[in-house]
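[09:14] KT: can someone run the structure on this one? pasting the chain below
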Amino acid sequence: MPDTIAVIISTYNKPDDLACVLEAYRFQTDKNFSIYVADDGSTEETALLIKAIAKGFPVPVHHIWHEDRGFRLSEIRNRALSAVSEPYVLITDGDCIPLPALVASHRNLCRQGSFLTGSRLLLNQRYSDIIRKQKIDPGSLTSLRTLFSLRVKYAINRFWPALIPSFTGRESNKLGGLRGCHMSFWLKDLKTINGYDQSFTGWGREDSDITARLFHAGVKRRNLYGTPLLHLWHKEFSRDQLHNNDAMLQASLDERRIEALCGLKQLEHHADE
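[09:31] RB: done, structure tokens below
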């Protein structure tokens, strides 16, 4: 078990969502973690929010930012990974509210030679807007009573994953069913495969690519059951780059590629120039 873990939360110009998510991390039962907000070019409003929340927060909160030049999720995650000092990393998004046992589940259940993939519960548009506008106490939002009430009102798509205690399935090399907003890795494994491939721009397939390359490097997947994230509703992202990303993923699979073509090494080399 790692002594502490890094939680990398990606965001882009959604300060209301990010505020709800960060506040929920105050209620983690395990405080052995640090937060790295991977900011894909948001305006100053997000920076001011993070600065205000970081004061008096129970764990360290870091803000990693780069200039807005389009959807560059892989690159900003790599920038956050370059700043991490913790040995284990939980990757999630700024619209995914954690249950109180999230950090504890990943820290307790991680194993050498594998990574974890978790699930999410989808909140509907109406209740997501209520959460954003009324600033509902995250402590009560993630209680089982509240979640049951949301399910009765059809405000979430399912309920049972929040009921069961956290456990993991068998190791596998299955690529399907991934949620890029809920995955955790040993940092050394991500460095072995050169992190996320920054060739992937726009929405889609960067999570499948990093998973495939971990498989090629001999690292197995284990599914985490229980402790889902609560995903705030939002409009779908543009899929205008999906065709290109699909082709790059297929090339990675065909070549059994291990290292990202443009990843952590290239990012660090560029920073040194």
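[09:33] KT: thanks! The chain is about 40% helix and 20% strand.
[09:34] RB: yep, looked fine to me
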